[in-house]
Amino acid sequence: MSSVLFDEKPIVISRELAKVIGLAESIIIQQLHYWIILNKKTNKNNYDGKHWVYRTYEDWQKNDFPFWSASTIKRIFQKIEKENLIITGNFNKKGYDKTKWYTINYEKIETLFMEINNKPTDEIVRPWGQNDPSIGSNRSDRSDQFDPTYTRDYKEINKDINKKKKNKKKSKKDLKISYFQDYIKKNDVTPKMLKCINYFLKNKEPTKESLKYMPFRGLYKSWLSYEESYRGKDTGT
To answer: Which of 86, 91, 110, 128 could disulfide-link 18, Cβ–Cβ 3.0 to 4.6 Å?
Structure first.
């Protein structure tokens, strides 16, 4: 038997949810859903017609997500709260207790799925795993800070992109640069993801190692679909 494979209950990842909102975000929401269902079965933490889960970021880190730091978990929760994917409240009995209570905005998630399903594949700009703020970090202290060594790469990408804007007719290289620039602008890009993108922009194909990195692999597949659709429009097919 393997010492790293689990006998315990694993964390579930919804592929479809990850495609729509991002890998890290989907992990958080799926686990939150798990606890909401448990509370619903036992009729615990029922307020305002909803079932809630209350925990500190340290509690989430200790009990659910030991592979992330508390600061990373906090950032993901703040992001999905800002995007209205979850609802927060305070039903603590003691006034000084500021522990947040969480429930899922199921209506918002259903609406997102309906919008995505009504769009052609090339119009979907959020490939799964795009916003994982922890994957690819090589920092032993798990500080989750942006690595300044990649700042130069991002500036080089923008410099190249600005030159290409002068040419209205997009070549394959121009199209690729434009596509990935748009992705970088719209998403929180990790240093590892930026490194993968920068290499691909300078070369015809990404490295085999970068394709093993799931967030970039999803982005690369979305790019191939977008490029194929773009060429089809040009030829009238």
So the answer is: 128
pLDDT digits (tens, 9 = 90+) for 200-237: 888 889 999 989 888 898 899 988 988 888 877 554 54
Distance CA 151, CA 153 (A): 5
> What are 13-52's pLDDT values in tens digits?
888 888 888 899 999 999 999 999 999 999 999 998 899 9
* d(C-alpha 91, C-alpha 106), whole Å: 20
User: Domains in the chain, ordered, with CATH?
Assistant: 15-116 (1.10.10.10), 128-235 (no CATH)
From the list 237, 134, 120, the residue with the least C-alpha distance to 193 is 134
Q: What is the pTM of this model?
A: 0.48
